[in-house]
Specification:
about 85% helix; globular; about 0% strand; mainly alpha; about 55 residues
Length: about 55
């Protein structure tokens, strides 16, 4: 599952960077995804990417 999560989050990041107008949608998806997985997975993959996208 962790490999899959890493791939999904990486694709979301590429999408948000390639098409900036999708940033809000990607952040919304990442927030929901972070709520659905365990805390360690969310911290290692989902929230780290969401925070980085918010910082840009």
């Amino acid at each position: 599952m962790i490999e899959r999560m890493s791939e999904i989050v990486a694709l979301m990041e590429v999408l948000a960077k390639a098409w900036p107008e999708t940033r809000l949608a990607v952040l919304s998806i990442l927030d929901e995804l972070g709520d659905e997985v365990d805390t360690i997975t969310a911290c290692d993959y989902v929230w780290r990417t969401a925070f980085a996208l918010r910082a840009d």
